């Protein structure tokens, strides 16, 4: 059995392909049902007794559009499903994608069972979409799935196709415009190693949108003008619309016209087998010219160029710093796309690879570097006490490379052996030492794989955490896959903060190479009572750290409630959260609570995107209202520059309001997801525009909190408290001059924490708090316990037992209604 995965799959929106790495080269498998074709249309058709996939499925759009499905990749990671009339069932995007993957397996003519594959995803896919893609792979029968970002795959295909002397150190752009998604990535090669420096993308921009534009802007207006329809567009796009079946036919003929316009200056769109509201039968051809089509897609292409400009600005680059723009994805066959990109960027375009198969080829190259490791194999590892650390050059032009090994642990009586997978090199059995150095001979123009094996005196293998050693000689490999977006936790501000706002805490930063692991410690701001319903909940989000939480995408929630803990976990207790993200963006989260000495692994619940049209419309209206308030505030403080910037955004929001309100509840297009993505981007821009205002308000709040805390420290603080106060004040130049409001908010919280930590140790505060708590004993939810605590509190005051009084105060607070507990804990009035 082959030890490496070797198979790479491009699971595309409109077309898919499969390839295999074989002895240093890549073979793209032909479609067995279509001579000469190497791709499979990503279309699935359900008949009562069978499933049809590919070109044959696509032909049924004309006859039975309700049972044919395409472009479902764009709904991966959502709760959307597709109603299949012929079998009276619904199919999810994951299930439909699995059908494509199963069909691709049939392309492999050797008859071997494919148990593992590298499957590509857009670089801009979020964590939930990535997880859904892996799920489709497992549903298709794969035991192991590794995800690879499409721009990396394209770069590997290109780099390994070129001769070594043709690829010098430098950087280029990958422009990947496919059927449903767009990615652009900045790639750098240095000393034979390839790195992704930055990227941008749009999961709802591609050839399918161009097809839809033809229908919306050419076909529908023509039909409305020449025939009688009361609500043609909604009748086409609503699942319950009487012309919904026609909509899929129109998309197909629009796509055919689009394809023909790459080689012709005009084309025809045939519209037939449809009647208007007066029952007049329609059988016509609508002309569309190449210039008309280019006018339709101009805005979309310019949007992709704006993303490229963002990358250049962010990385302080000029067009002259970029060698070329590598064009991949089927939509880059459109002549206008190539012309427009080169014209506006003034960077040469590179069309030297087949844009339809480049992704699959690159995935196969990557698969050739990845070892097959199934679930059972993973569990066998790490059972010895030895720790193995390896250091070596992963990409080289030399004939041999130095391997340096460090072994930690008891090595008495042990041996080591290093072998190359092709059996062409073997060190033989050598006594194990803590530091090993070996020169490894390499096969030319190949991926070389070596294994370090630890043996006991009886030649039994000792399991360790040693990984496969892979060195590419004369082949290009990638340094690692970068994280597509910031990963953050949404944290409440401290309970004492009057604003009750939340903030984002950065865990993993965009463009950081995966895998990653981090452990963070937090203090619980409320008690979790054993057996109770109180919960510790933390939102995990994807998106810019500098944005407000509502502008980002929720991945899921970390959740622990009273039914899981073995004892009461009191407010102020420590809690440790460990997050691990794999190269395929699997997110694993564990929580450890020292107070109960419990570790929880099943605490993270990833959430599929659920977006009813009504919710989108409500959120857009809320955003519009917020924007109006911000503009009014900016004018009120005579900040006309910000007001003008926000007014520009207002025009975008007004368009978004109109577009979202035009959607029906059962709209079958991707429009609601496009509009939701637009909404989040606008929310981020509003946040950016109003950041100065929020920083100013937080500075005022900080100075107020500083004066309050200073008075408490001077009156009641010890030496340690004085030191902490001086440390916070000493950092003022850093956080008060920060462009991130969060830094100031964190300083406010530190001041608040310090002040209340002192107060809760101060007798006068504890007495005053007690007196205030017993003013309204009728509020206590357990009158008997309340009476008992009041008696104990009076006794504690009489005996000056303030440690006991502190406990009693917390006990009384826990008896109050939840709505009153926060003020009882932190109210400053009268104390």
From TrEMBL:
Organism ancestry: Bacteria, Pseudomonadati, Bacteroidota, Sphingobacteriia, Sphingobacteriales
Species assigned in the record: Mucilaginibacter rubeus
CDD domains per record: ASKHA_NBD_HSP70_DnaK_HscA_HscC
UniProt entry keywords in alphabetical sequence: ATP-binding, Chaperone, Nucleotide-binding
PANTHER family named in the record: HEAT SHOCK PROTEIN 70KDA
Gene3D superfamilies, per the entry: 3.30.420.40, Actin, Chain A, domain 4
Protein name: Hsp70 family protein
GO molecular function, one term: ATP binding
Transmembrane regions listed in the UniProt entry: none
Protein family membership: Belongs to the heat shock protein 70 family.
Keyword Nucleus assigned: no
């Amino acid at each position: 059995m082959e030890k490496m995965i070797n198979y790479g799959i491009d699971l595309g929106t409109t077309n898919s392909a499969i390839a295999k790495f074989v002895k240093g080269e890549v073979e793209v498998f032909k479609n067995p049902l279509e001579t000469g074709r190497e791709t499979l249309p990503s279309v699935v058709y359900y008949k009562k007794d069978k499933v049809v996939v590919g070109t044959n499925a696509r032909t049924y759009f004309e006859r039975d559009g309700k049972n044919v499905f395409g472009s479902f990749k764009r709904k991966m990671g959502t709760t959307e499903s597709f109603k299949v009339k012929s079998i009276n069932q619904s199919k999810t995007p994951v299930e439909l994608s699995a059908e494509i993957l199963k069909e691709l397996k049939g392309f492999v003519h050797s008859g071997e069972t494919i148990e593992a594959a590298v499957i590509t995803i857009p670089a801009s896919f979020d964590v939930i979409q990535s997880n859904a893609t892996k799920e489709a792979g497992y549903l298709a029968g794969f035991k192991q799935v590794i995800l690879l970002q499409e721009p990396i795959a394209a770069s590997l295909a290109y780099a390994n196709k070129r001769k070594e002397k043709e690829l010098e150190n430098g950087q280029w752009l990958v422009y990947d415009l496919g059927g449903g998604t767009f990615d652009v990535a900045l790639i750098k090669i240095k000393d034979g190693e390839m790195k992704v420096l930055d990227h941008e993308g749009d999961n709802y921009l591609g050839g399918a949108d161009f097809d839809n534009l033809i229908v919306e802007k050419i076909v529908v207006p023509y039909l409305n003008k020449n025939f009688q329809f009361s609500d043609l567009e909604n009748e086409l796009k609503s699942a319950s619309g009487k012309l919904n079946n026609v909509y899929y036919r129109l998309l197909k003929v629009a796509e055919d016209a689009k394809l023909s316009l790459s080689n012709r200056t005009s084309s025809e769109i045939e519209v037939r087998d449809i009647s208007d509201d007066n029952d007049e039968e329609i059988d016509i051809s609508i002309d569309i010219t190449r210039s008309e089509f280019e006018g339709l897609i101009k805005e979309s292409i310019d949007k992709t160029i704006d993303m490229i400009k963002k990358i250049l600005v962010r990385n302080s680059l000029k067009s002259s710093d970029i060698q070329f723009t590598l064009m991949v994805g089927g939509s880059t066959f459109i002549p206008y796309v190539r012309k427009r990109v080169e014209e506006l960027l003034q960077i040469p375009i590179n069309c030297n690879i087949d844009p339809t198969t480049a992704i699959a080829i690159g995935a196969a190259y990557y698969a050739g570097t990845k070892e097959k490791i199934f679930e059972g194999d993973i569990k066998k590892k790490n059972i010895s006490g030895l720790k193995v650390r390896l250091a070596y050059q992963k990409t080289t032009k030399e004939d041999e490379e130095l391997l340096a090994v460090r072994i930690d642990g008891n090595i008495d009586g042990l041996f080591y052996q290093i072998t190359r997978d092709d059996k062409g090199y073997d060190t033989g059995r050598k006594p194990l030492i803590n530091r090993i150095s070996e020169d490894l001979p390499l096969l030319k123009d190949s991926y070389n794989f070596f294994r370090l094996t630890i043996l006991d005196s009886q030649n039994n293998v000792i399991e360790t955490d040693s990984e496969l050693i892979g060195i590419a000689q004369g082949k290009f490999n990638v340094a690692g896959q970068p994280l597509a977006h910031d990963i953050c936790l949404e944290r409440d501000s401290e309970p004492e903060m009057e604003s009750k706002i939340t903030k984002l805490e950065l865990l993993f930063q965009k463009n950081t190479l995966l895998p990653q692991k981090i452990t963070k410690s937090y203090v619980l701001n409320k008690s979790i009572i054993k057996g109770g319903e109180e919960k510790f909940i933390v939102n995990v989000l994807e998106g810019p750290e500098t944005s407000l939480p509502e502008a980002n995408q929720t991945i899921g929630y970390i959740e622990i409630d009273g039914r899981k803990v073995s004892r009461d976990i009191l407010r102020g207790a420590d809690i440790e959260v460990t997050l691990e993200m794999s190269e395929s963006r699997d997110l694993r989260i564990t929580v450890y609570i020292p107070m109960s000495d419990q570790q929880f692994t099943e605490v993270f619940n990833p959430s599929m995107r659920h977006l009813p049209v009504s919710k989108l419309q409500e959120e857009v209206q809320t955003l519009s209202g917020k924007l109006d308030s911000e503009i009014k505030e900016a004018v009120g403080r005579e900040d006309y520059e910000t007001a003008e910037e926000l007014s520009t955004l207002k025009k975008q929001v007004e368009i978004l309001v109109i577009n979202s309100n035009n959607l029906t509840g059962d709209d079958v297009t991707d429009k609601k997801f496009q509009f939701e993505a637009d909404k989040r981007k606008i929310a981020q821009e509003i946040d950016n525009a109003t950041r100065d205002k929020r920083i100013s308000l937080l500075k005022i709040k900080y100075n107020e909190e500083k004066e309050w805390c200073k008075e408490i420290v001077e009156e009641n603080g010890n030496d340690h408290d004085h030191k902490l106060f001086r440390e916070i004040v000493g950092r003022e130049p850093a956080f008060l001059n920060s462009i991130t409001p969060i830094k100031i908010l964190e300083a406010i919280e530190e001041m608040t924490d310090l002040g209340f930590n002192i107060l809760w140790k101060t007798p006068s505060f504890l007495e005053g708090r007690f007196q205030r708590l017993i003013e309204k004993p009728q509020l206590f939810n357990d009158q008997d316990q309340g009476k008992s605590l009041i008696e104990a509190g009076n006794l504690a005051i009489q005996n000056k037992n303030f440690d006991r009084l502190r406990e009693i105060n917390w006990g009384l607070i826990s008896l109050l209604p939840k709505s009153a507990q926060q003020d009882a804990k932190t109210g400053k009035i009268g104390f």
